[in-house]
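To illustrate this point, what follows is a protein record of this kind.

___
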Amino acid sequence: MTDGNEMFPLIQRLDQDGKLVGELGVLTAKDLKDTYTTMRFLRMFDERAWNLQRQGVIGTYAPFKGQEAAQMGAVAALDDRDWLVPTYRDWAASYLRGVPMEHALFFSKGHPSLGDVPAGKQVLPAQVVIAAQTLHGVGVAWATKLRHEGVATVVTFGDGATSQGDFHEAMNFASVLEVPLIFFCENNQWAISVPLSRQMHAETIAQRSVAYGIEGFRVDGNDYVAVANLMHELSARVRSGEGPFLVEAVTYRLGAHTTADDPGKYRSVEEEDLWIQRDPLTRIEKWLRTEGLLDDEDLAAMDVESEAKVEEVLAVFREALDISPLVLFDNVYAEVPTGLASQRAQFEARVKEVGA
Protein backbone atom coordinates (compact mmCIF):
# COMPACT_ATOMS: atom_id res chain seq x y z
CA MET A 1 0.00 0.00 0.00
CA THR A 2 1.41 3.39 -0.93
CA ASP A 3 0.59 6.70 0.69
CA GLY A 4 1.81 10.14 -0.25
CA ASN A 5 0.65 12.15 2.76
CA GLU A 6 3.70 13.88 4.25
CA MET A 7 2.18 15.18 7.46
CA PHE A 8 0.63 11.86 8.43
CA PRO A 9 2.57 9.10 6.65
CA LEU A 10 1.07 5.62 6.77
CA ILE A 11 2.75 3.51 9.46
CA GLN A 12 3.39 -0.03 8.24
CA ARG A 13 5.47 -2.98 9.44
CA LEU A 14 4.06 -5.97 7.55
CA ASP A 15 3.13 -5.32 3.93
CA GLN A 16 0.40 -6.96 1.86
CA ASP A 17 2.88 -9.54 0.55
CA GLY A 18 3.56 -10.73 4.08
CA LYS A 19 7.04 -9.20 4.21
CA LEU A 20 8.34 -7.28 7.20
CA VAL A 21 9.11 -3.68 6.27
CA GLY A 22 9.72 -2.85 9.92
CA GLU A 23 10.32 -4.79 13.13
CA LEU A 24 8.00 -7.08 15.09
CA GLY A 25 8.63 -4.69 17.96
CA VAL A 26 6.80 -5.76 21.12
CA LEU A 27 5.42 -8.85 19.38
CA THR A 28 6.92 -12.30 19.02
CA ALA A 29 6.46 -14.92 16.35
CA LYS A 30 4.25 -16.84 18.79
CA ASP A 31 2.11 -13.72 19.33
CA LEU A 32 1.56 -13.48 15.61
CA LYS A 33 0.62 -17.14 15.22
CA ASP A 34 -1.78 -16.95 18.18
CA THR A 35 -3.29 -13.79 16.71
CA TYR A 36 -3.74 -15.47 13.35
CA THR A 37 -5.44 -18.45 15.00
CA THR A 38 -7.92 -16.12 16.70
CA MET A 39 -8.44 -14.14 13.50
CA ARG A 40 -9.30 -17.33 11.64
CA PHE A 41 -11.93 -18.20 14.25
CA LEU A 42 -13.38 -14.69 14.12
CA ARG A 43 -13.54 -14.76 10.32
CA MET A 44 -15.37 -18.09 10.44
CA PHE A 45 -17.81 -16.77 13.05
CA ASP A 46 -18.46 -13.62 11.03
CA GLU A 47 -19.28 -15.61 7.91
CA ARG A 48 -21.53 -17.96 9.90
CA ALA A 49 -23.40 -15.01 11.41
CA TRP A 50 -24.06 -13.68 7.91
CA ASN A 51 -25.56 -17.04 6.94
CA LEU A 52 -27.67 -17.14 10.10
CA GLN A 53 -29.27 -13.85 9.11
CA ARG A 54 -30.02 -15.18 5.64
CA GLN A 55 -31.66 -18.19 7.29
CA GLY A 56 -33.84 -15.94 9.43
CA VAL A 57 -32.23 -17.00 12.70
CA ILE A 58 -31.03 -13.49 13.61
CA GLY A 59 -31.89 -9.97 12.51
CA THR A 60 -29.73 -7.40 10.77
CA TYR A 61 -26.03 -8.09 11.25
CA ALA A 62 -23.00 -5.84 10.59
CA PRO A 63 -20.04 -7.96 9.44
CA PHE A 64 -16.47 -7.05 10.38
CA LYS A 65 -14.69 -9.14 7.73
CA GLY A 66 -11.53 -7.36 6.65
CA GLN A 67 -11.23 -5.27 9.80
CA GLU A 68 -9.90 -7.96 12.12
CA ALA A 69 -6.34 -6.59 12.30
CA ALA A 70 -7.53 -3.07 13.10
CA GLN A 71 -9.89 -4.22 15.83
CA MET A 72 -7.56 -6.73 17.42
CA GLY A 73 -4.62 -4.36 17.20
CA ALA A 74 -6.66 -1.58 18.80
CA VAL A 75 -6.95 -3.55 22.06
CA ALA A 76 -3.69 -5.51 21.88
CA ALA A 77 -2.03 -3.36 24.54
CA LEU A 78 -4.93 -3.05 26.97
CA ASP A 79 -4.81 -4.75 30.35
CA ASP A 80 -7.63 -5.70 32.72
CA ARG A 81 -7.91 -2.18 34.14
CA ASP A 82 -8.18 -0.41 30.80
CA TRP A 83 -11.45 0.45 29.05
CA LEU A 84 -12.89 -0.25 25.59
CA VAL A 85 -15.84 1.78 24.31
CA PRO A 86 -16.90 0.06 21.06
CA THR A 87 -19.24 0.62 18.17
CA TYR A 88 -21.67 -1.94 16.76
CA ARG A 89 -19.20 -3.59 14.37
CA ASP A 90 -16.37 -4.11 16.83
CA TRP A 91 -17.04 -7.67 17.93
CA ALA A 92 -13.45 -8.79 17.36
CA ALA A 93 -12.20 -6.08 19.72
CA SER A 94 -14.92 -6.76 22.29
CA TYR A 95 -14.22 -10.51 22.16
CA LEU A 96 -10.57 -9.93 23.03
CA ARG A 97 -11.71 -7.80 25.96
CA GLY A 98 -13.75 -10.65 27.40
CA VAL A 99 -17.19 -10.17 25.83
CA PRO A 100 -18.58 -13.58 24.79
CA MET A 101 -18.99 -13.93 21.01
CA GLU A 102 -22.67 -14.80 21.35
CA HIS A 103 -23.25 -11.14 22.25
CA ALA A 104 -22.85 -10.32 18.56
CA LEU A 105 -25.84 -12.56 17.90
CA PHE A 106 -27.73 -11.15 20.90
CA PHE A 107 -27.22 -7.67 19.45
CA SER A 108 -28.68 -8.71 16.11
CA LYS A 109 -31.54 -10.51 17.80
CA GLY A 110 -32.43 -7.66 20.17
CA HIS A 111 -31.77 -9.99 23.09
CA PRO A 112 -31.74 -8.21 26.49
CA SER A 113 -28.60 -10.09 27.59
CA LEU A 114 -26.62 -7.87 25.23
CA GLY A 115 -26.06 -5.34 28.00
CA ASP A 116 -24.92 -7.98 30.47
CA VAL A 117 -21.17 -7.43 30.15
CA PRO A 118 -19.28 -10.04 32.21
CA ALA A 119 -18.27 -8.84 35.66
CA GLY A 120 -14.82 -7.35 35.80
CA LYS A 121 -14.61 -6.64 32.07
CA GLN A 122 -13.99 -2.98 31.34
CA VAL A 123 -16.13 -2.80 28.18
CA LEU A 124 -19.25 -0.82 27.45
CA PRO A 125 -22.10 -2.42 25.47
CA ALA A 126 -21.93 -1.97 21.68
CA GLN A 127 -23.24 1.40 20.54
CA VAL A 128 -25.39 1.61 17.41
CA VAL A 129 -25.97 5.39 17.42
CA ILE A 130 -23.22 6.70 15.15
CA ALA A 131 -20.47 8.56 17.07
CA ALA A 132 -22.42 8.63 20.36
CA GLN A 133 -19.83 6.38 22.00
CA THR A 134 -17.09 8.96 21.37
CA LEU A 135 -18.69 11.14 24.04
CA HIS A 136 -19.11 8.14 26.31
CA GLY A 137 -15.43 7.37 25.85
CA VAL A 138 -14.48 10.88 26.91
CA GLY A 139 -16.65 10.48 30.00
CA VAL A 140 -15.04 7.19 30.96
CA ALA A 141 -11.53 8.55 30.42
CA TRP A 142 -12.30 11.73 32.36
CA ALA A 143 -13.61 9.66 35.28
CA THR A 144 -10.41 7.59 35.38
CA LYS A 145 -8.37 10.79 35.35
CA LEU A 146 -10.32 12.32 38.23
CA ARG A 147 -9.78 9.11 40.18
CA HIS A 148 -6.05 9.07 39.33
CA GLU A 149 -6.36 5.47 38.13
CA GLY A 150 -3.62 5.64 35.50
CA VAL A 151 -5.50 3.53 32.95
CA ALA A 152 -6.06 3.79 29.21
CA THR A 153 -9.40 4.12 27.42
CA VAL A 154 -9.90 3.31 23.73
CA VAL A 155 -13.03 4.40 21.88
CA THR A 156 -13.56 2.86 18.43
CA PHE A 157 -15.64 4.19 15.55
CA GLY A 158 -15.84 4.24 11.77
CA ASP A 159 -15.00 6.95 9.25
CA GLY A 160 -18.67 7.88 8.99
CA ALA A 161 -18.69 8.82 12.67
CA THR A 162 -16.15 11.58 12.00
CA SER A 163 -18.85 13.39 10.01
CA GLN A 164 -21.10 13.56 13.06
CA GLY A 165 -21.19 16.45 15.52
CA ASP A 166 -20.73 14.14 18.50
CA PHE A 167 -17.25 13.21 17.26
CA HIS A 168 -16.10 16.83 17.10
CA GLU A 169 -17.60 17.66 20.47
CA ALA A 170 -15.84 14.64 21.93
CA MET A 171 -12.51 15.60 20.36
CA ASN A 172 -12.76 19.14 21.70
CA PHE A 173 -13.89 18.05 25.16
CA ALA A 174 -11.13 15.42 25.37
CA SER A 175 -8.50 17.92 24.22
CA VAL A 176 -9.49 20.64 26.68
CA LEU A 177 -9.64 18.19 29.60
CA GLU A 178 -6.50 16.33 28.45
CA VAL A 179 -8.07 12.95 29.15
CA PRO A 180 -6.18 9.62 28.86
CA LEU A 181 -8.08 8.51 25.75
CA ILE A 182 -7.23 7.09 22.33
CA PHE A 183 -9.75 7.86 19.59
CA PHE A 184 -9.41 4.88 17.24
CA CYS A 185 -11.02 5.35 13.83
CA GLU A 186 -11.45 2.29 11.62
CA ASN A 187 -11.48 4.03 8.27
CA ASN A 188 -13.08 1.31 6.16
CA GLN A 189 -13.62 3.76 3.29
CA TRP A 190 -17.42 3.65 3.23
CA ALA A 191 -20.15 5.06 5.50
CA ILE A 192 -22.77 2.66 4.17
CA SER A 193 -22.86 3.84 0.52
CA VAL A 194 -21.04 7.15 1.01
CA PRO A 195 -17.31 7.08 0.18
CA LEU A 196 -14.80 8.99 2.28
CA SER A 197 -14.31 11.48 -0.58
CA ARG A 198 -17.96 12.53 -0.23
CA GLN A 199 -17.71 12.88 3.55
CA MET A 200 -14.83 15.32 3.77
CA HIS A 201 -12.43 17.37 1.69
CA ALA A 202 -9.42 16.80 3.96
CA GLU A 203 -6.85 14.31 2.74
CA THR A 204 -6.83 12.25 5.93
CA ILE A 205 -8.89 11.75 9.06
CA ALA A 206 -5.72 11.83 11.15
CA GLN A 207 -5.08 15.47 10.30
CA ARG A 208 -8.27 16.48 12.10
CA SER A 209 -6.22 16.08 15.26
CA VAL A 210 -4.41 19.33 14.43
CA ALA A 211 -7.55 21.43 14.89
CA TYR A 212 -7.94 20.10 18.43
CA GLY A 213 -4.30 20.44 19.43
CA ILE A 214 -3.64 16.74 19.92
CA GLU A 215 -1.36 14.20 18.26
CA GLY A 216 -2.67 12.17 15.35
CA PHE A 217 -1.39 9.02 13.69
CA ARG A 218 -2.20 7.13 10.49
CA VAL A 219 -1.56 3.40 10.39
CA ASP A 220 -2.18 0.55 7.95
CA GLY A 221 -5.24 -0.95 9.61
CA ASN A 222 -4.75 -4.27 7.81
CA ASP A 223 -1.28 -4.61 9.35
CA TYR A 224 -1.72 -6.10 12.80
CA VAL A 225 1.96 -5.71 13.63
CA ALA A 226 1.88 -1.96 12.97
CA VAL A 227 -1.42 -1.36 14.77
CA ALA A 228 -0.46 -3.40 17.84
CA ASN A 229 2.91 -1.69 18.21
CA LEU A 230 1.42 1.78 17.82
CA MET A 231 -1.25 1.04 20.40
CA HIS A 232 1.33 -0.33 22.85
CA GLU A 233 3.18 2.97 22.58
CA LEU A 234 0.08 5.16 22.91
CA SER A 235 -1.48 3.10 25.71
CA ALA A 236 1.69 3.48 27.77
CA ARG A 237 1.69 7.22 27.13
CA VAL A 238 -1.93 7.77 28.20
CA ARG A 239 -1.40 5.70 31.34
CA SER A 240 1.44 8.05 32.23
CA GLY A 241 -0.81 11.09 31.88
CA GLU A 242 -0.51 12.05 28.21
CA GLY A 243 -3.30 12.25 25.67
CA PRO A 244 -5.70 12.27 24.08
CA PHE A 245 -4.60 10.87 20.70
CA LEU A 246 -6.33 10.23 17.39
CA VAL A 247 -5.49 7.13 15.35
CA GLU A 248 -6.74 6.59 11.81
CA ALA A 249 -6.46 2.90 10.92
CA VAL A 250 -6.80 2.62 7.14
CA THR A 251 -8.71 -0.58 6.44
CA TYR A 252 -11.60 -1.85 4.32
CA ARG A 253 -14.98 -3.43 4.88
CA LEU A 254 -14.75 -6.52 2.67
CA GLY A 255 -18.42 -7.33 3.14
CA ALA A 256 -21.58 -5.27 3.12
CA HIS A 257 -22.33 -2.52 5.62
CA THR A 258 -24.98 -4.83 7.07
CA THR A 259 -27.05 -7.75 5.86
CA ALA A 260 -29.58 -5.15 4.65
CA ASP A 261 -27.02 -3.64 2.27
CA ASP A 262 -25.81 -4.47 -1.26
CA PRO A 263 -22.32 -2.96 -1.82
CA GLY A 264 -22.50 -3.98 -5.46
CA LYS A 265 -24.82 -1.01 -5.95
CA TYR A 266 -22.21 1.58 -5.05
CA ARG A 267 -18.65 0.23 -5.29
CA SER A 268 -16.74 -1.52 -8.05
CA VAL A 269 -15.48 -5.08 -8.22
CA GLU A 270 -12.04 -3.69 -9.08
CA GLU A 271 -11.93 -1.77 -5.81
CA GLU A 272 -12.97 -4.82 -3.81
CA ASP A 273 -10.38 -7.00 -5.57
CA LEU A 274 -7.66 -4.47 -4.73
CA TRP A 275 -8.51 -4.64 -1.03
CA ILE A 276 -8.89 -8.41 -1.02
CA GLN A 277 -5.18 -8.48 -1.87
CA ARG A 278 -4.60 -6.51 1.34
CA ASP A 279 -6.60 -8.94 3.51
CA PRO A 280 -5.10 -8.87 7.03
CA LEU A 281 -5.38 -12.64 7.41
CA THR A 282 -3.60 -13.32 4.14
CA ARG A 283 -0.57 -11.20 4.95
CA ILE A 284 -0.03 -12.81 8.37
CA GLU A 285 -0.47 -16.25 6.82
CA LYS A 286 2.17 -15.46 4.20
CA TRP A 287 4.63 -14.35 6.86
CA LEU A 288 4.02 -17.39 9.03
CA ARG A 289 4.50 -19.72 6.05
CA THR A 290 7.71 -17.98 5.05
CA GLU A 291 9.03 -18.35 8.59
CA GLY A 292 8.13 -22.05 8.60
CA LEU A 293 5.57 -21.55 11.36
CA LEU A 294 2.48 -22.56 9.39
CA ASP A 295 1.52 -25.18 6.83
CA ASP A 296 -1.63 -26.70 5.34
CA GLU A 297 -1.90 -29.23 8.17
CA ASP A 298 -1.85 -26.40 10.72
CA LEU A 299 -4.58 -24.55 8.82
CA ALA A 300 -6.77 -27.64 8.74
CA ALA A 301 -6.35 -28.08 12.50
CA MET A 302 -7.16 -24.41 13.10
CA ASP A 303 -10.34 -24.72 11.07
CA VAL A 304 -11.47 -27.76 13.01
CA GLU A 305 -10.87 -25.92 16.27
CA SER A 306 -12.59 -22.78 14.97
CA GLU A 307 -15.62 -24.73 13.82
CA ALA A 308 -15.93 -26.31 17.26
CA LYS A 309 -15.73 -22.90 18.93
CA VAL A 310 -18.36 -21.47 16.60
CA GLU A 311 -20.68 -24.36 17.43
CA GLU A 312 -20.13 -23.71 21.15
CA VAL A 313 -21.14 -20.08 20.66
CA LEU A 314 -24.25 -21.10 18.73
CA ALA A 315 -25.21 -23.59 21.44
CA VAL A 316 -25.05 -20.87 24.11
CA PHE A 317 -26.99 -18.51 21.87
CA ARG A 318 -29.79 -21.00 21.17
CA GLU A 319 -30.13 -21.86 24.86
CA ALA A 320 -30.33 -18.16 25.73
CA LEU A 321 -33.36 -17.70 23.47
CA ASP A 322 -35.48 -19.55 26.03
CA ILE A 323 -35.78 -16.71 28.52
CA SER A 324 -38.32 -15.11 30.81
CA PRO A 325 -39.59 -11.67 29.76
CA LEU A 326 -38.62 -10.51 33.25
CA VAL A 327 -35.02 -10.14 32.07
CA LEU A 328 -36.12 -6.82 30.59
CA PHE A 329 -35.74 -5.40 34.09
CA ASP A 330 -32.21 -6.76 34.59
CA ASN A 331 -28.91 -4.99 33.94
CA VAL A 332 -30.51 -1.55 33.93
CA TYR A 333 -29.53 -0.22 37.38
CA ALA A 334 -26.89 -1.35 39.82
CA GLU A 335 -29.43 -0.72 42.58
CA VAL A 336 -33.01 -1.19 41.41
CA PRO A 337 -35.20 1.88 42.14
CA THR A 338 -38.38 1.29 44.12
CA GLY A 339 -40.58 2.25 41.20
CA LEU A 340 -38.92 -0.18 38.82
CA ALA A 341 -39.05 -2.96 41.42
CA SER A 342 -42.78 -2.35 41.78
CA GLN A 343 -43.30 -2.49 38.02
CA ARG A 344 -41.32 -5.72 37.85
CA ALA A 345 -43.48 -7.30 40.55
CA GLN A 346 -46.66 -6.29 38.71
CA PHE A 347 -45.30 -7.61 35.43
CA GLU A 348 -44.20 -10.87 37.05
CA ALA A 349 -47.70 -11.38 38.44
CA ARG A 350 -49.18 -10.80 35.00
CA VAL A 351 -46.73 -13.25 33.38
CA LYS A 352 -47.72 -15.92 35.89
CA GLU A 353 -51.40 -15.19 35.30
CA VAL A 354 -51.05 -15.53 31.55
CA GLY A 355 -48.88 -18.60 31.90
CA ALA A 356 -51.43 -20.23 34.16
Notes: The beta strands are 10-11, 83-85, 153-158, 181-187, 190-191, 194-195, 215-220, 245-250. The first strand starts at residue 10 and ends at 11. The domain at 10-323 is CATH 3.40.50.970 (Rossmann fold). The mean pLDDT is 94.
